[in-house]
Backbone:
């Protein structure tokens, strides 16, 4: 009981800080914070899949691409309200995630990682083929653009809603089933868990989250969906974010999202090495360092701190 | 560069993952297949990677061991 109270209190503090932030930061920093919100949704989704159900995906950028293109195309062709396009991206990616989850049932470990990696490389090729509908290399420009503060609000509202949804899903029967599947598939099946249903469901939910992240991502890049933006780097950023946050826990995701959302921007201002290419070096080094120091991510760090406080 | 990785993985899976000879056969088969595809259907040339991905998925679904791979037997 006391633990739940302290969790709720810290959530409240984080929410309050996030609500005040846009009124104190400059416009550029608000857009950076919005970027973190976008990654928050994506990393949260990937954590449901990789952290809870144990299926690794190196291709969630593909679902972000699908969500992002949904937003841009609907806005361009039908002038759909952007909030509606987020819901559409959620629904479409949920269905596609279920479809992708079916062949994924046959794969595990490194094979699944490589297959999803192939998915992430394949999907950005599709706009090049159907260039009249999906805009080719130039991309799709949605009909409405929104201010940084609007995106910030949208991104963190989605984050809050989806976080609560994820928490509700994962604390009960479904979450228990997913963790059982992750720890031992054979033990899970013998305890009466329908393996195919839970594994594809995890894929669907996780893809839907990535779709929302993609929709927000496109809004944050001036409503512009471009194949180059959804390359393999984006998928790897999500995976790194989930690992830095701590797999199988929801409490480190803010740190993981901030890590992948802010570090590339911040490290360009580091003197000497912080140039265009030094940025990637700094990012890679930091990933190695964080994983060495915190093998369980920030969630593991929080757990250790909690144990210290109690002792 | 990333695309080559997809072709390579598709070829390795086609040949069977722990079979060196299979990798050779798979690599040639995938390469010839994709080049023929691009040659005969030039209008879908930018779909080469998605096609390699489709081949990969098809093999994994129909014959996960590939052409020359052995079925893994594990102890519980």
Residues:
């Amino acid at each position: 009981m006391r633990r739940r109270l302290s969790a709720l209190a810290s959530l409240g503090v984080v929410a309050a800080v996030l609500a005040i932030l846009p009124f104190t930061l400059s416009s550029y920093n608000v857009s950076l914070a919005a970027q973190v919100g976008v990654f928050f949704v994506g990393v949260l989704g990937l954590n449901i899949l990789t952290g809870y159900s144990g299926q690794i995906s190196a291709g969630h950028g593909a679902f972000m691409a699908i969500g992002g293109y949904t937003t841009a195309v609907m806005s361009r062709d039908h002038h759909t309200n952007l909030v509606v396009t987020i819901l559409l991206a959620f629904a479409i990616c949920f269905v596609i995630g279920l479809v992708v989850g079916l062949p994924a049932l046959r794969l595990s470990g490194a094979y699944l990682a490589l297959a999803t990696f192939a998915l992430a490389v394949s999907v950005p090729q599709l706009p090049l083929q159907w260039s009249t509908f999906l805009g080719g290399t130039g991309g799709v420009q949605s009909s409405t653009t929104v201010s940084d503060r609007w995106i910030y609000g949208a991104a963190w509202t989605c984050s809050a809603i989806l976080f609560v949804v994820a928490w509700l899903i994962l604390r009960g029967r479904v979450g228990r089933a997913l963790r059982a599947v992750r720890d031992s598939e054979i033990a899970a099946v013998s305890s009466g868990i329908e393996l195919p249903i839970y594994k594809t469901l995890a894929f669907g939910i996780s893809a839907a989250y990535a779709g929302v992240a993609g929709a927000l991502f496109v809004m944050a890049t001036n409503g512009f969906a471009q194949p180059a933006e959804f390359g393999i780097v984006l998928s790897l950023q999500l995976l790194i974010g989930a690992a830095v946050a701590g797999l199988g826990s929801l409490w480190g995701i803010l740190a993981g999202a901030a890590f992948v959302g802010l570090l590339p921007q911040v490290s360009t201002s580091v003197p000497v090495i912080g140039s265009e290419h030094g940025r990637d070096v700094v990012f890679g080094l930091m990933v190695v360092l964080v994983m060495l120091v915190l093998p369980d991510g920030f969630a593991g760090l929080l757990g250790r701190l909690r144990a210290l406080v109690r002792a | 560069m990333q695309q080559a990785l997809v072709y390579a993985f598709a070829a390795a899976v086609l040949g069977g993952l722990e079979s060196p000879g299979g990798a050779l056969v798979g690599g040639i088969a995938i390469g010839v297949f994709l080049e023929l595809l691009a040659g005969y259907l030039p209008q879908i040339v930018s779909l080469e990677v998605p096609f390699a991905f489709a081949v990969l998925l098809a093999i994994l679904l129909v014959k996960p061991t590939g052409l020359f791979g052995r079925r893994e037997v594990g102890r519980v």
